[in-house]
């Protein structure tokens, strides 16, 4: 499948998820079971965090971690969220960087941008801007951002080298990359890699850990660290494999403990 086809499928899927939330539902990564049952996207934020954002931002949350909790954001910093969805991490970042800082969200899906802008309006925050565009071509100048966050989006890109090169370009020297992503340890059965349903569900496009580290280093990043935040066992794999229509009983034992949500950190050298 070509990159543009895959991008359109991703856009359609997340456009529908945004419309569902706008109509009063919850976003879901699968068609059969609801979001609460999803082992990847459920239970990521504390009650005090969700109390600070509109309920629709929480309902639209489709990440696999909580990058703002781990990114050590400071007052006055400029933050960019790659694939900002309904905006929950942008709104939380905006609180952390305060009125002298700024939080940008970047997303390619019109329905998600509309939802995020509505959530910004409800939250009444001004130091936030949602931008339309692709993470492979970030619409911001070189060296303009202190911290890049992202929550379960880089795995969806068919051109991860380009995403990381763009992230490096827009970061200021000394800037930090602090993203939550699905990462794989070891070999994954080909049936998983071939599944479009599992690609849009953030599983099939996940990078192997060493490959992720290699791509970050190739883009110029240093201080690379991959910290598991949730490791998926056989029962979790059964859930996402059966949702994708694959033979869960046969494949799940082969991926027991191989997929994880991880916090990926790296830094742009001060001299770059
Ligand atoms: C799994 S959702 C995560 C949304 C959000 N980060 C969160 O935690 O709820 C993926 C989001 O990334 C966006 N997205 C996927 N690929 C993208 C790309 N190549 N460029 C820009 N946005 C993209 C989708 O439109 C969707 O809103």
What does this structure look like?
The protein has 272 residues and is α/β, with parallel strands linked by helices. 38% of the residues lie in helices and 21% in strands. It has twelve helices and eight strands. Residues 30-36 have low confidence and may be disordered.
Q: How many individual helices?
A: 12
Low-confidence stretches: 30-36
Query: What is the string of helix and strand elements?
Result: HHHHEHEHEEHEHHEHEHHE
* Multimerization state: single chain
| Residue share in β-strands | 15-25%
Count all strands and give the number: 8
Structural class of the secondary elements? alpha/beta
Overall pLDDT: 93
**Bulk shape:** globular
The value of Rg in angstroms is 17 Å
The small-molecule ligands in this entry are: S-adenosylmethionine
Summarize the model shown.
The chain is of the alpha/beta class and 272 residues long. Helix content is 38%, strand content 21%. The protein is built from twelve helices and eight strands.
Which key phrases capture this entry?
single chain, 272 residues, alpha/beta, eight-stranded mixed β-sheet, 8 strands, 38% helix, 21% strand, globular, binds S-adenosylmethionine
Secondary-structure topology with pairs:
Layout: H1 3-22, H2 47-50, H3 55-59, H4 67-70, E1 78-82, H5 88-97, E2 102-107, H6 110-123, E3 128-132, E4 145-151, H7 160-170, E5 171-184, H8 190-194, H9 196-200, E6 207-208, H10 209-219, E7 222-231, H11 234-243, H12 248-251, E8 259-267
Parallel strand pairs: 1-2, 1-4, 2-3, 4-5, 5-6
Antiparallel strand pairs: 5-8, 7-8
Helix pairs in contact: 1-6, 7-10
Bound molecules: S-adenosylmethionine.
S-adenosylmethionine binds next to helix 1 and helix 5.
């Amino acid at each position: 499948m070509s990159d543009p086809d895959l991008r359109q499928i991703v856009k359609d899927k997340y456009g529908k998820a945004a419309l569902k939330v706008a109509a009063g539902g919850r976003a879901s990564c699968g068609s059969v079971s609801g979001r609460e049952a999803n082992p990847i996207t459920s239970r990521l934020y504390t009650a005090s965090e969700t109390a600070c954002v509109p309920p629709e931002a929480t309902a639209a949350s489709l990440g696999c971690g909580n990058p703002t909790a781990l990114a050590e954001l400071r007052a006055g910093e400029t933050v960019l969220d790659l694939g900002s969805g309904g905006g929950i991490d942008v709104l939380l970042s905006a609180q952390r960087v305060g009125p002298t800082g700024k939080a940008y969200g970047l997303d390619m899906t019109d329905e998600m941008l509309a939802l995020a802008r509505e959530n910004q309006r409800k939250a009444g925050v001004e130091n936030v801007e949602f931008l339309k565009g692709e993470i492979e071509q970030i619409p911001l100048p070189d060296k303009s951002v202190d911290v890049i966050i992202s929550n379960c989006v880089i795995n969806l890109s068919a051109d991860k080298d380009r995403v990381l090169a763009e992230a490096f370009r827009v970061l200021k020297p000394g800037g930090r990359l602090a993203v939550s992503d699905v990462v794989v340890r070891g070999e994954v059965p080909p049936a998983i890699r071939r599944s479009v349903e599992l690609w849009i569900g953030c599983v099939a496009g996940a990078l192997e850990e060493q490959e992720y580290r290699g791509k970050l280093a190739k883009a110029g990043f240093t201080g690379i660290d991959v910290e598991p935040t949730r490791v998926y066992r056989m029962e979790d794999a059964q859930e996402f494999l059966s949702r994708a229509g694959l033979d869960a009983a046969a494949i799940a034992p082969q991926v027991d403990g191989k997929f994880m949500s991880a916090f990926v950190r790296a830094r742009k050298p001060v001299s770059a």
